Amino acid sequence: MNTVAMRFSKRIVIIMSFVMIAIFGVGINDAYAADRNECVTKINSAKDKAAKSDVLGAEATVARTKEGYQVRRNIVEDNICHTAHMIEYTKGTDIYDKYVLDYWFDNAKKYRYTYDKECKNYVFEPRADYNDYKSYLSLDYYLESENTDGVDVSSDAEYKATGTDPVFLKFYKDIYDYSADEVVSSDGKAVECIVVSHFREYEMPKYINETDNSIHFDLIKSIYNTLDDQDKLRENFDAYKETVYIVAKKDYLIGKDDGKLYMIRNSLSQNASEPVIMTVDFYYPDNSITIPSKYTKSPSLIKNALIEYKGINYCAYYEGKSTVLTLYDCKTKAAKKREKLVVPDTIKYNGRAYKVCGIDYHAFFYNTNLKNVVIGANVTDIGGEAFFGCSKIKTVTIKSKKLKRIGESAFYTDGNTFTVKVPKGKKKAYKKLLKKAKSSKYFIK
Known about the structure:
By secondary structure, the protein is α/β, with parallel strands linked by helices.
Protein backbone atom coordinates (compact mmCIF):
# COMPACT_ATOMS: atom_id res chain seq x y z
CA MET A 1 0.00 0.00 0.00
CA ASN A 2 1.46 3.37 -0.96
CA THR A 3 2.02 6.23 1.50
CA VAL A 4 -0.96 8.28 0.29
CA ALA A 5 -3.31 5.32 0.64
CA MET A 6 -1.99 4.55 4.15
CA ARG A 7 -2.49 8.15 5.24
CA PHE A 8 -6.02 8.14 3.81
CA SER A 9 -6.76 4.85 5.57
CA LYS A 10 -5.52 6.20 8.92
CA ARG A 11 -7.69 9.28 8.51
CA ILE A 12 -10.71 7.10 7.80
CA VAL A 13 -9.98 5.02 10.95
CA ILE A 14 -9.55 8.15 13.10
CA ILE A 15 -12.75 9.72 11.73
CA MET A 16 -14.69 6.47 12.23
CA SER A 17 -13.29 6.18 15.77
CA PHE A 18 -14.52 9.68 16.62
CA VAL A 19 -17.90 8.88 15.07
CA MET A 20 -18.16 5.62 17.07
CA ILE A 21 -17.11 7.37 20.28
CA ALA A 22 -19.64 10.13 19.66
CA ILE A 23 -22.41 7.64 18.89
CA PHE A 24 -21.48 5.45 21.86
CA GLY A 25 -21.29 8.48 24.17
CA VAL A 26 -24.67 9.75 23.02
CA GLY A 27 -26.06 6.26 23.48
CA ILE A 28 -24.84 6.17 27.08
CA ASN A 29 -26.23 9.65 27.81
CA ASP A 30 -29.56 8.78 26.18
CA ALA A 31 -29.78 5.54 28.16
CA TYR A 32 -28.98 7.34 31.41
CA ALA A 33 -31.50 10.10 30.64
CA ALA A 34 -34.16 7.51 29.77
CA ASP A 35 -33.52 5.60 33.00
CA ARG A 36 -33.59 8.81 35.02
CA ASN A 37 -36.79 10.00 33.35
CA GLU A 38 -38.46 6.63 33.92
CA CYS A 39 -37.58 6.78 37.62
CA VAL A 40 -38.82 10.35 38.03
CA THR A 41 -42.02 9.51 36.13
CA LYS A 42 -42.64 6.50 38.38
CA ILE A 43 -42.04 8.58 41.52
CA ASN A 44 -44.35 11.40 40.42
CA SER A 45 -47.04 8.96 39.32
CA ALA A 46 -46.93 7.20 42.70
CA LYS A 47 -47.16 10.51 44.56
CA ASP A 48 -50.08 11.58 42.39
CA LYS A 49 -51.95 8.34 43.11
CA ALA A 50 -51.33 8.76 46.82
CA ALA A 51 -52.52 12.37 46.83
CA LYS A 52 -55.70 11.47 44.91
CA SER A 53 -56.65 8.49 47.09
CA ASP A 54 -60.06 8.70 48.73
CA VAL A 55 -58.46 8.29 52.17
CA LEU A 56 -54.71 8.52 52.74
CA GLY A 57 -52.73 8.21 55.94
CA ALA A 58 -49.10 8.82 56.85
CA GLU A 59 -46.96 8.47 59.93
CA ALA A 60 -43.41 9.63 60.61
CA THR A 61 -40.97 10.67 63.31
CA VAL A 62 -40.77 14.45 63.15
CA ALA A 63 -38.53 15.28 66.13
CA ARG A 64 -36.94 14.01 69.29
CA THR A 65 -37.49 15.33 72.81
CA LYS A 66 -34.54 16.41 74.94
CA GLU A 67 -34.93 13.11 76.76
CA GLY A 68 -34.39 11.29 73.46
CA TYR A 69 -37.95 10.10 72.84
CA GLN A 70 -39.38 10.07 69.31
CA VAL A 71 -42.11 12.56 68.50
CA ARG A 72 -44.42 10.85 66.01
CA ARG A 73 -46.97 12.50 63.73
CA ASN A 74 -49.89 10.64 62.18
CA ILE A 75 -52.18 12.23 59.61
CA VAL A 76 -55.24 10.92 57.78
CA GLU A 77 -56.89 12.91 54.98
CA ASP A 78 -60.31 12.13 53.52
CA ASN A 79 -60.64 13.66 50.06
CA ILE A 80 -64.33 12.75 49.77
CA CYS A 81 -65.54 14.17 53.10
CA HIS A 82 -62.92 16.97 52.95
CA THR A 83 -61.74 16.25 56.47
CA ALA A 84 -58.38 15.51 58.03
CA HIS A 85 -57.09 14.37 61.40
CA MET A 86 -53.60 14.94 62.81
CA ILE A 87 -52.18 13.62 66.04
CA GLU A 88 -48.64 14.13 67.31
CA TYR A 89 -47.47 11.98 70.20
CA THR A 90 -44.34 10.91 72.04
CA LYS A 91 -43.31 7.30 71.49
CA GLY A 92 -41.61 5.20 74.14
CA THR A 93 -42.61 7.20 77.19
CA ASP A 94 -45.38 7.37 79.76
CA ILE A 95 -45.57 11.18 79.56
CA TYR A 96 -47.89 10.93 76.55
CA ASP A 97 -50.25 13.76 77.52
CA LYS A 98 -47.43 16.24 77.96
CA TYR A 99 -46.55 16.26 74.27
CA VAL A 100 -49.71 15.22 72.45
CA LEU A 101 -51.34 17.45 69.81
CA ASP A 102 -54.71 16.47 68.38
CA TYR A 103 -56.22 18.46 65.49
CA TRP A 104 -59.24 17.94 63.25
CA PHE A 105 -59.56 19.85 59.99
CA ASP A 106 -62.67 20.84 58.06
CA ASN A 107 -61.06 21.44 54.66
CA ALA A 108 -64.26 22.86 53.19
CA LYS A 109 -64.83 25.53 55.87
CA LYS A 110 -61.06 25.91 56.43
CA TYR A 111 -61.45 25.38 60.18
CA ARG A 112 -59.07 23.65 62.57
CA TYR A 113 -60.60 22.07 65.70
CA THR A 114 -58.93 20.96 68.92
CA TYR A 115 -59.43 20.76 72.69
CA ASP A 116 -57.77 23.61 74.59
CA LYS A 117 -56.69 22.76 78.13
CA GLU A 118 -56.27 26.44 79.03
CA CYS A 119 -59.95 27.32 78.59
CA LYS A 120 -61.11 23.71 79.08
CA ASN A 121 -63.24 23.79 75.97
CA TYR A 122 -63.37 22.60 72.35
CA VAL A 123 -62.09 25.40 70.15
CA PHE A 124 -61.69 26.14 66.47
CA GLU A 125 -59.53 28.40 64.36
CA PRO A 126 -60.54 29.93 61.02
CA ARG A 127 -57.57 30.87 58.86
CA ALA A 128 -57.41 33.18 55.86
CA ASP A 129 -54.07 31.58 55.01
CA TYR A 130 -55.47 28.12 55.72
CA ASN A 131 -53.91 26.38 52.73
CA ASP A 132 -50.39 27.51 53.61
CA TYR A 133 -50.93 26.82 57.29
CA LYS A 134 -52.49 23.42 56.72
CA SER A 135 -49.70 22.28 54.40
CA TYR A 136 -47.29 22.22 57.34
CA LEU A 137 -49.48 19.70 59.14
CA SER A 138 -50.87 17.81 56.17
CA LEU A 139 -49.70 15.21 53.70
CA ASP A 140 -48.58 17.93 51.29
CA TYR A 141 -45.64 18.37 53.61
CA TYR A 142 -44.49 14.81 52.95
CA LEU A 143 -45.29 14.68 49.25
CA GLU A 144 -42.99 17.50 48.17
CA SER A 145 -42.01 17.49 44.50
CA GLU A 146 -38.90 15.66 43.40
CA ASN A 147 -36.05 18.08 42.85
CA THR A 148 -33.95 16.88 39.91
CA ASP A 149 -32.23 20.08 38.81
CA GLY A 150 -29.80 20.78 41.62
CA VAL A 151 -29.18 24.09 43.31
CA ASP A 152 -26.95 26.97 42.24
CA VAL A 153 -24.26 28.13 44.59
CA SER A 154 -23.82 31.87 45.12
CA SER A 155 -20.23 32.90 45.66
CA ASP A 156 -18.92 35.15 48.42
CA ALA A 157 -18.16 37.88 45.84
CA GLU A 158 -21.60 37.56 44.25
CA TYR A 159 -23.29 37.82 47.64
CA LYS A 160 -21.37 40.96 48.59
CA ALA A 161 -21.89 42.55 45.17
CA THR A 162 -25.57 41.77 44.64
CA GLY A 163 -26.96 40.80 48.03
CA THR A 164 -28.07 37.45 46.57
CA ASP A 165 -28.86 34.90 49.25
CA PRO A 166 -25.92 32.50 49.52
CA VAL A 167 -27.01 28.89 49.04
CA PHE A 168 -24.08 26.68 49.97
CA LEU A 169 -25.54 23.54 48.50
CA LYS A 170 -24.59 21.67 45.37
CA PHE A 171 -24.42 18.03 44.35
CA TYR A 172 -21.69 16.08 42.57
CA LYS A 173 -23.46 12.79 41.90
CA ASP A 174 -27.09 12.32 40.95
CA ILE A 175 -28.04 8.68 40.36
CA TYR A 176 -31.32 6.72 40.21
CA ASP A 177 -31.55 2.99 40.81
CA TYR A 178 -34.16 0.18 40.98
CA SER A 179 -34.46 -2.61 43.55
CA ALA A 180 -37.22 -4.53 45.34
CA ASP A 181 -38.41 -4.69 48.94
CA GLU A 182 -41.39 -5.51 51.15
CA VAL A 183 -42.77 -2.88 53.47
CA VAL A 184 -45.26 -3.14 56.33
CA SER A 185 -47.20 0.12 56.30
CA SER A 186 -48.61 1.84 59.39
CA ASP A 187 -51.91 -0.06 59.10
CA GLY A 188 -50.05 -3.38 59.39
CA LYS A 189 -50.33 -4.52 55.79
CA ALA A 190 -47.33 -6.09 54.04
CA VAL A 191 -46.87 -4.77 50.49
CA GLU A 192 -44.47 -5.94 47.78
CA CYS A 193 -42.73 -2.84 46.46
CA ILE A 194 -40.46 -1.57 43.74
CA VAL A 195 -37.82 0.66 45.31
CA VAL A 196 -36.76 3.67 43.30
CA SER A 197 -33.63 5.09 44.94
CA HIS A 198 -32.25 8.53 44.37
CA PHE A 199 -28.60 8.98 45.43
CA ARG A 200 -26.92 12.36 45.71
CA GLU A 201 -23.57 13.52 46.99
CA TYR A 202 -23.65 17.06 48.32
CA GLU A 203 -21.25 19.74 49.36
CA MET A 204 -22.86 21.28 52.42
CA PRO A 205 -22.15 24.24 54.72
CA LYS A 206 -20.08 23.47 57.78
CA TYR A 207 -22.87 24.11 60.26
CA ILE A 208 -24.81 21.07 58.97
CA ASN A 209 -21.88 19.05 60.30
CA GLU A 210 -22.29 20.68 63.70
CA THR A 211 -26.00 19.95 64.11
CA ASP A 212 -27.07 17.03 66.25
CA ASN A 213 -28.75 13.99 64.78
CA SER A 214 -32.29 14.94 65.74
CA ILE A 215 -34.62 13.77 63.00
CA HIS A 216 -36.76 16.64 61.83
CA PHE A 217 -38.27 17.69 58.54
CA ASP A 218 -36.63 21.09 58.23
CA LEU A 219 -33.19 19.51 57.90
CA ILE A 220 -34.36 16.85 55.46
CA LYS A 221 -36.30 19.39 53.40
CA SER A 222 -33.36 21.79 53.24
CA ILE A 223 -31.04 19.08 51.96
CA TYR A 224 -33.40 17.77 49.31
CA ASN A 225 -34.59 21.12 48.09
CA THR A 226 -33.03 24.47 49.00
CA LEU A 227 -31.53 25.62 52.24
CA ASP A 228 -34.29 27.52 54.07
CA ASP A 229 -32.13 28.90 56.87
CA GLN A 230 -30.83 31.89 54.89
CA ASP A 231 -30.85 34.27 57.86
CA LYS A 232 -28.47 32.07 59.80
CA LEU A 233 -26.08 32.02 56.85
CA ARG A 234 -26.24 35.77 56.33
CA GLU A 235 -25.58 36.53 59.99
CA ASN A 236 -22.63 34.14 60.21
CA PHE A 237 -21.34 34.22 56.65
CA ASP A 238 -17.64 33.79 57.35
CA ALA A 239 -18.17 30.89 59.75
CA TYR A 240 -19.56 28.61 57.07
CA LYS A 241 -16.95 28.84 54.32
CA GLU A 242 -15.58 25.41 55.18
CA THR A 243 -17.72 22.68 53.65
CA VAL A 244 -18.34 19.01 54.31
CA TYR A 245 -19.64 16.22 52.09
CA ILE A 246 -22.89 14.42 52.70
CA VAL A 247 -24.30 11.46 50.83
CA ALA A 248 -28.09 11.52 50.67
CA LYS A 249 -30.27 8.62 49.65
CA LYS A 250 -34.01 8.86 49.16
CA ASP A 251 -35.96 5.64 48.60
CA TYR A 252 -39.48 5.66 47.22
CA LEU A 253 -41.23 2.33 47.92
CA ILE A 254 -43.97 1.90 45.32
CA GLY A 255 -46.49 -0.96 45.34
CA LYS A 256 -45.85 -3.49 42.54
CA ASP A 257 -49.57 -4.13 42.00
CA ASP A 258 -51.22 -0.74 42.52
CA GLY A 259 -48.37 1.72 41.82
CA LYS A 260 -49.13 3.64 45.03
CA LEU A 261 -46.52 5.17 47.28
CA TYR A 262 -46.03 3.25 50.56
CA MET A 263 -42.89 4.77 52.00
CA ILE A 264 -40.39 7.56 51.58
CA ARG A 265 -37.14 6.64 53.31
CA ASN A 266 -34.51 9.36 53.70
CA SER A 267 -30.96 8.67 54.84
CA LEU A 268 -28.08 11.11 55.23
CA SER A 269 -24.50 10.12 55.95
CA GLN A 270 -21.40 12.23 56.26
CA ASN A 271 -18.18 10.51 55.28
CA ALA A 272 -18.11 7.23 57.21
CA SER A 273 -20.49 8.31 59.95
CA GLU A 274 -23.71 6.49 60.74
CA PRO A 275 -26.61 7.69 58.57
CA VAL A 276 -29.48 9.74 59.92
CA ILE A 277 -32.59 7.94 58.72
CA MET A 278 -36.16 9.19 58.52
CA THR A 279 -39.10 7.28 57.09
CA VAL A 280 -42.64 8.32 56.20
CA ASP A 281 -45.07 5.40 56.08
CA PHE A 282 -48.18 5.80 53.91
CA TYR A 283 -51.33 3.73 54.24
CA TYR A 284 -54.78 3.69 52.66
CA PRO A 285 -57.67 3.27 55.14
CA ASP A 286 -60.92 1.73 53.89
CA ASN A 287 -63.25 3.94 55.93
CA SER A 288 -63.96 7.68 55.68
CA ILE A 289 -63.18 9.89 58.65
CA THR A 290 -65.71 12.16 60.33
CA ILE A 291 -64.99 14.94 62.79
CA PRO A 292 -66.51 13.95 66.19
CA SER A 293 -69.57 16.05 67.02
CA LYS A 294 -68.11 17.13 70.38
CA TYR A 295 -65.63 19.28 68.42
CA THR A 296 -68.17 20.91 66.14
CA LYS A 297 -71.24 21.19 68.39
CA SER A 298 -70.48 24.54 70.03
CA PRO A 299 -66.77 25.36 69.80
CA SER A 300 -65.40 28.76 70.69
CA LEU A 301 -62.67 30.64 68.87
CA ILE A 302 -59.15 29.58 69.83
CA LYS A 303 -56.86 32.08 71.54
CA ASN A 304 -55.19 34.52 69.09
CA ALA A 305 -57.52 33.57 66.21
CA LEU A 306 -58.29 36.50 63.89
CA ILE A 307 -61.73 37.09 62.39
CA GLU A 308 -62.94 39.87 60.13
CA TYR A 309 -66.06 41.95 60.80
CA LYS A 310 -66.96 44.86 58.50
CA GLY A 311 -63.41 45.17 57.21
CA ILE A 312 -61.78 45.14 60.66
CA ASN A 313 -59.78 42.33 62.29
CA TYR A 314 -60.71 41.15 65.78
CA CYS A 315 -58.47 38.88 67.83
CA ALA A 316 -59.78 36.27 70.29
CA TYR A 317 -58.44 35.86 73.83
CA TYR A 318 -59.57 34.12 77.01
CA GLU A 319 -61.14 35.74 80.05
CA GLY A 320 -61.40 32.86 82.47
CA LYS A 321 -63.44 30.20 80.68
CA SER A 322 -64.95 32.73 78.26
CA THR A 323 -63.61 33.74 74.86
CA VAL A 324 -63.83 37.45 74.06
CA LEU A 325 -62.52 39.73 71.29
CA THR A 326 -60.28 42.74 71.02
CA LEU A 327 -60.30 45.06 68.01
CA TYR A 328 -56.95 44.34 66.35
CA ASP A 329 -56.55 46.51 63.22
CA CYS A 330 -58.09 47.56 59.91
CA LYS A 331 -57.96 44.84 57.29
CA THR A 332 -59.45 46.47 54.20
CA LYS A 333 -58.68 49.75 52.46
CA ALA A 334 -62.34 50.75 52.74
CA ALA A 335 -62.22 50.36 56.52
CA LYS A 336 -59.12 52.56 56.71
CA LYS A 337 -60.95 55.31 54.81
CA ARG A 338 -64.00 55.44 57.09
CA GLU A 339 -64.65 58.63 59.00
CA LYS A 340 -66.70 56.89 61.68
CA LEU A 341 -65.73 53.86 63.75
CA VAL A 342 -68.28 51.93 65.81
CA VAL A 343 -66.82 49.27 68.10
CA PRO A 344 -69.73 46.84 68.56
CA ASP A 345 -70.87 45.39 71.88
CA THR A 346 -70.76 41.86 70.48
CA ILE A 347 -69.94 40.05 67.22
CA LYS A 348 -71.67 36.88 66.14
CA TYR A 349 -69.42 34.36 64.41
CA ASN A 350 -70.17 30.76 63.43
CA GLY A 351 -73.42 30.83 65.44
CA ARG A 352 -71.86 32.18 68.64
CA ALA A 353 -71.80 35.71 70.11
CA TYR A 354 -68.51 37.13 71.43
CA LYS A 355 -68.17 40.27 73.54
CA VAL A 356 -65.77 42.91 72.23
CA CYS A 357 -63.78 43.81 75.35
CA GLY A 358 -60.76 45.68 74.06
CA ILE A 359 -59.03 47.82 71.46
CA ASP A 360 -55.48 46.73 70.74
CA TYR A 361 -52.22 48.67 70.79
CA HIS A 362 -51.71 50.71 67.58
CA ALA A 363 -55.13 49.60 66.28
CA PHE A 364 -55.72 52.89 64.37
CA PHE A 365 -52.24 54.36 64.53
CA TYR A 366 -52.10 57.51 62.38
CA ASN A 367 -55.48 56.92 60.75
CA THR A 368 -56.09 60.48 59.59
CA ASN A 369 -59.55 59.76 58.16
CA LEU A 370 -61.25 59.08 61.50
CA LYS A 371 -63.52 61.83 62.82
CA ASN A 372 -65.97 60.04 65.13
CA VAL A 373 -65.35 57.02 67.39
CA VAL A 374 -68.00 55.06 69.29
CA ILE A 375 -66.65 52.58 71.85
CA GLY A 376 -68.92 49.66 72.72
CA ALA A 377 -70.51 48.83 76.06
CA ASN A 378 -68.25 45.84 76.84
CA VAL A 379 -64.85 47.46 76.28
CA THR A 380 -62.67 47.32 79.41
CA ASP A 381 -59.28 48.15 77.92
CA ILE A 382 -57.97 50.56 75.26
CA GLY A 383 -54.38 49.81 74.24
CA GLY A 384 -51.53 52.30 74.13
CA GLU A 385 -51.36 54.54 71.04
CA ALA A 386 -54.58 52.96 69.77
CA PHE A 387 -55.63 56.27 68.16
CA PHE A 388 -52.22 57.94 68.12
CA GLY A 389 -51.92 60.54 65.35
CA CYS A 390 -55.62 60.44 64.40
CA SER A 391 -55.57 64.20 63.97
CA LYS A 392 -59.10 64.67 62.60
CA ILE A 393 -60.97 63.07 65.53
CA LYS A 394 -63.75 65.36 66.77
CA THR A 395 -65.76 63.15 69.13
CA VAL A 396 -65.15 59.96 71.11
CA THR A 397 -68.28 58.38 72.60
CA ILE A 398 -67.58 55.81 75.31
CA LYS A 399 -70.65 53.64 75.96
CA SER A 400 -68.85 51.26 78.30
CA LYS A 401 -69.29 51.58 82.06
CA LYS A 402 -66.59 48.93 82.59
CA LEU A 403 -63.52 50.73 81.20
CA LYS A 404 -60.55 50.00 83.49
CA ARG A 405 -57.54 51.18 81.49
CA ILE A 406 -56.57 53.60 78.73
CA GLY A 407 -53.03 52.93 77.54
CA GLU A 408 -50.39 55.62 77.24
CA SER A 409 -50.94 58.00 74.31
CA ALA A 410 -54.04 56.07 73.22
CA PHE A 411 -55.70 59.43 72.39
CA TYR A 412 -52.61 61.47 71.61
CA THR A 413 -54.23 62.66 68.38
CA ASP A 414 -51.78 65.46 67.59
CA GLY A 415 -54.72 67.48 66.31
CA ASN A 416 -57.52 69.79 67.38
CA THR A 417 -59.27 69.57 70.72
CA PHE A 418 -61.87 66.79 70.70
CA THR A 419 -64.94 65.96 72.78
CA VAL A 420 -65.25 62.82 74.93
CA LYS A 421 -68.77 61.68 75.83
CA VAL A 422 -68.99 59.26 78.76
CA PRO A 423 -71.80 57.40 80.61
CA LYS A 424 -73.54 59.06 83.52
CA GLY A 425 -71.51 58.84 86.74
CA LYS A 426 -68.22 58.02 84.95
CA LYS A 427 -66.92 61.50 84.21
CA LYS A 428 -64.50 61.69 87.15
CA ALA A 429 -63.11 58.16 86.76
CA TYR A 430 -62.66 58.38 82.99
CA LYS A 431 -61.12 61.86 83.20
CA LYS A 432 -58.49 60.36 85.49
CA LEU A 433 -57.81 57.55 83.00
CA LEU A 434 -57.49 60.03 80.11
CA LYS A 435 -55.09 62.22 82.07
CA LYS A 436 -52.92 59.26 83.05
CA ALA A 437 -52.82 58.21 79.39
CA LYS A 438 -51.34 61.61 78.37
CA SER A 439 -54.16 62.36 75.98
CA SER A 440 -54.32 65.41 73.73
CA LYS A 441 -56.60 68.34 74.59
CA TYR A 442 -60.21 67.31 75.07
CA PHE A 443 -63.54 68.27 76.60
CA ILE A 444 -65.30 65.61 78.62
CA LYS A 445 -69.01 65.54 79.15
